[in-house]
Structure formats: structure tokens, C-alpha cells
């Protein structure tokens, strides 16, 4: 037995022994990741046959990792019919891994990376709410459970790495990937990032229930010019360190193993070749010892796009020297790196370092000793009853009640009368799932209409339905049916919004009859998702016009938004009786919404991103600088709905907060306590939020910053004391020299239910 195959030796000894035996070609091969779904074809019996091209690449040692082997969507052209079931997928990855181990010279196992932003992007997996909704729960413990479940489903099929969580901070929600993020606040994103890393990796990488967390996109990707995907980022280093880098730092501290670079440049330097970001900050300052992967084809952009490298050899050398260890689904390392090494443009020492990092992780994963998985277990744990219920609970806690005029909600089963469910998102399964979603079988996704049908049971004959219009096109041919349907009802539930659904061949709906049609002529509903950026935040198509015509009937009007970014529609804000923001609530969203509409669940979601009144206000975010400037001629700078906002079916009262001690030194902690009472008649969750204002500082500071939150459940009349601990990290600022220090002075502490309202107390820091 060669030493690297001996499990009794340390990982360091095994890595060094293996590296010493590798040829240059084999080393380069470890840095290459290919499209996994292209490595095989599916047979009629559900088994797979590996392609001859893939087999030859394995024999030549030209591959170290596969990307998205089980990914199914229109891009991969993998469908429900051509894709693999959970058990078949596990067996297929076993077959691929077995061939690699048995037919490559050194038998180095592959690392399978999969997309798992809100569930494994494979046939049969549980589809959870998108991260923006999961963040809106303000419940990191619940989100950690969700990440644990995603890891279990992914690892059961052989996937060992996920390309999530997305830690980009969003201040311009025209950006199509807003749905994949946690919103606009670095502190909240850091807490959720920590929960994600622990949930995905927490039981140890060699556990059958964990996968590698890959933090992306490093860094500033959500701060792009004009909200356009991969556009330049105009940001100073101080702001980068005090805002966009914060969640990444917290996730590294939690033990994240992998980081993915962003497509964008910052002040003229592409992130994929930035030695400052990838080495100085990530490795030297933060002590990160995992591996760094590019985003798909990002290295190619150094030559064709950024034009900072004249040749492929120069681009690979720049990236390798900066700290890139693995190229996602690209060809640059495979095509140019060996030549760059032979020409002396790149250094073999940098190559060896990258290979060491990748081999170390493969040993940590246990792939050399236990490379295969159990297909029967995959069939058992994927989309289990427990995971389905968890998906519903995340949706329940993340859906936000924005407006509730005169207690329009909850509906009362005994007195509501007939209900018209209308709108393009009332019964479109894929429209409520978000981007990065696999094909779904009929009946798996519970829409709003279906959720209400199942909720009402025998009384579902009180439900009426009409689609009204589509998301994007301007056809009004469904208005007549929608208005006639609404006339028959006492309450109208109007389900509007957007879609991040790729073209899954779902067909369309006849707007005049509400019947499903199967044809491919319909324009896609997609107005959000990766690469789908917008110039405004209004509802697309004729949705607003539909809403206005139905409002004119004088019925109780409840608007539900199902979407991936904030909607700016002041007319609806003013005229609807109730407004619910559901983001993309996942496969159980219809059940959760029905429960909220009828009061079985008291809504407890809170906004993690400000909702502007008009796109011209952008950027709108709660933690703006005091020096943000004056109002516009047409309107002020206040959003329609502020960060942290969300209503409940009950009311909560806060006593004055108490800080102890009131005076501390820069290296001490302080406790802030507040009593919260449920003063209403319904049990419910409250999200207590603590905001900090540094009244005077050596550099300009935000008006306020979130520095603590707790979600507590209170029965009617119940009082709980909530205590926050403020540490030097909470009080620190980033200086113009990029140091993090606590300066003496007074800090105003606000505790309340959102970023605008709250009781105030003062904490003093003295030398």
C-alpha cells in the first residue's frame, strides 16, 4: 500500500506522498472541473453509460472535479424523463467515481460539486423557499435546519460541495439575483452565513450528512453598477470592509471550506485575479485555509472582457498566482496552464499549493477511504416527510404581511363568503420556486389556489379562479373573465409578482377560460433570476391595470406578491386592503399562504431589504450614511416599507431598554435587556431588533446599524425579557487605514420591531 492510501497516516502525510508521485499533467488535471451531466448518457433501465470522451480524460488524468452532475433544468436539457431519480443519481455518481478510481493512474477520486441554493438542483429533491425568504424568517436556527436538510439530500447522492450560500449585499434590487441573497444588511447576512456554514458542514466533512459550503460571490457582486449582472463595482476599500466583506469574514470564522470569486471588477481589478482579495484579505488577514474556485468561465473574461491579459497563458498565471485553486466548468487551466508553466509565466510552486489544497479537502471528505454512497438511502432521505414539513415551516415564518388595513386579514371561514383567486401567479407552480430549480412533477408544488383548495376542503366550492393576465405580456383577453369572477366573490385574493422560471415546457393558461394549454409558443414569464436585470421595479405587463379594474368592483382586495425582488407600486400600496410579500416560497408556499390567510399561522416574516416607492429613489437602504444628501424634487428618501418591517395579527409592546453597564471600556461587553409583551389576543412571533448609532466618530458612519435580533414566541398577555450582548466587534468601526477599532464616545441604542421605530438608550465607551 502506498502511503497516501493508508488511512492511519495524517492527512498532511498522505497529501505530500500523493503530490510527490503526480506528473505535471495530473497536477493540472486536479484544477479542472468539467460539466458533470455531459459525462454520461442514461439508459432505458435507469443506469448510465459513461462517454468515451470522459473515459479518455480520466485515463489521461485531466480532471479533478465535476460540476452539477445531477443538475436538471433547461440549460442542461435534463428533464423529468431524461433525468435520474434519487436512487439512480446516487448509483450514477458511484459508477463515475468507480471508473475514475479504477482507471486513472493514481486513483484520485473526483469531487462532485452541485447547485443547492434552496435545495439540491436535482430530480426529486425538496424545493425550499429562496434565500431571500429564508432570511425574512429572521430565524438563523431554522435556516440552519434547512441547510442541514439540503446537505443530507445532496450528500446522499454523492455530491460533496454546494455552490452556496450567496453572501452578496444588495442595495440595487434591479439586480436579477436579489432572490438568492439575504438582503441589504451585512450583520444579518453574517448571522445567516454562519448558520448556513454550520448547517452544511457542521458534522464534519467526512460525515454522510454534510457538504462543503462555498461562499459566493467574492466580493461586491451585489453592488454592481446599475444593478446589472457582472457590471463594475464602484466602491472604496473602507466600505468594502465594513459592508460587503462582513458576511464572508463571519462565514470563514464559522469554518467555510471554499470560496467562489465574483465576475465583477472593483476599482479596475477583476476579483478573479485580485491578489489583495484572494491572498492578502482572505488568507493572510483571515487565515482561510480552504480552496478558491472561480465562477463559471470567469478566467476567460480576463482575456475577453476585462482585457487585463493578452493570452490564455497570462490569464491562468494571473489567477493561479492570485490564489485560484479550481476552475469551475471552464477550459483555461486545461488549455493554457501547462504552456504557461513551460514558458515560465506561471510557477509550479503555485500549482503545487493549489493541488495540496484540493487534495487535502478530498482526504477530509473521506473520498479516498469511502468514495461511494448508498442509493437506497438516497431514495429514503430525499424529499422525506420531515423535509417537506421543514420547507413549509420556513415559508410560514418568512412570508411578510406588509399591510393589513382595518384587520382585513385573517379571513374568517364562517363569514368570508366566496373568494376569487385571481392573477398570473395564483396557479403557476414554477413561478413560485425561483431560479436554480429542477423540473418538478405535477402536484408536487402547492400553488396558492391549490393550497386554499386543500385548506377549505369541502368548502372549496366557495373558491373561484381566473388567471386574469400573464406576468409579462400585454394581453388583456383575460380581464373579462377575471372581472366577472371577482364580481361573484366577497373577497378577491390577487396573486401578482414575477417569475424566475426558466422554460420548463410548463405550457400556458388560456386567459379567457383559465384552462391549461400545452404548447411552446408562450413567451417566458421570466423577469428575474441570474442575468435578468431590470431598469425599474414596477409590475410587468398589465398586472397593475388588472388590479385597478378589480379594485373598482369595491370588493375586499388582498394582494399577494410572489417574486424575487421588491415591487414598487404605490397605487397598490395605497388601495389594497392587505398586502403579503411571499417572495418565492418554494414547493409548500401555497400551504403556508393558505394558513396565513386564514389565521392558522400568524405572519412573522420581516423585510431584509427596503422596498422603495419609486425606482428613482435607488439606492434605498436603511443604514445609509448621515451625509446621504437631500430629498429629490418629486419625493423624499423614505421607502414604502422599511428594513425590518412586517406586521402581525397581534400587537407587541416594548418597555424601555436597560443597558448594563452604561459605561464600558473599548474592550468590554455590555448587556441590553428589554421586556416585550404580547398585548393582543393571538399568539405570535415577534422579531426584536437592536440598532446602534455611533453618534460621533473619526470617519463618517451610517445613521444606524443592525447589531442584534431575536425572534421570540409569545402567548397573549405573555411577557418575555430579551437580552442582547454588545461586544467590541459590534461597536467597532473601520478606519481609513482599514483597521477595526472601538473609539470612545456615545452610542445610541434603539430596540424595537423595525429599523424606524423603537425605544432608545445610550451606552458610553471611555478609555
Helix share, percent: 25-40%
CATH class of the largest domain: Alpha Beta
- Report the CATH superfamily of the largest domain: Glycoside hydrolase, family 3, N-terminal domain
Average predicted confidence as pLDDT: 96
CATH architecture classification of the largest domain: Alpha-Beta Barrel
Major β-sheet annotation:
7 strands, parallel
Tell how many strands the DSSP assignment holds: 30
As for the number of domains, it is 3
Shape: globular
Ends distance: 62 Å
Tally the helices.
22
Q: Which structural category fits the helices and strands?
A: alpha/beta
Strand order of the largest sheet: 1-4-5-6-7-8-11
* Share of residues in strands: 15-25%
Low-confidence stretches: 518-522
CATH topology of the largest domain: TIM Barrel
Structure description:
The chain has 767 residues and is an alpha/beta fold. The chain folds into three domains: 23-380, Alpha-Beta Barrel (TIM Barrel); 399-617, Glycoside hydrolase family 3 C-terminal domain (Rossmann fold, 3-Layer(aba) Sandwich), CATH 3.40.50; 652-765, Immunoglobulins (Immunoglobulin-like, Sandwich). 29% of the residues lie in helices and 18% in strands. It contains 22 helices and 30 strands. It starts with 10 loop residues before the first helix and ends with a strand.
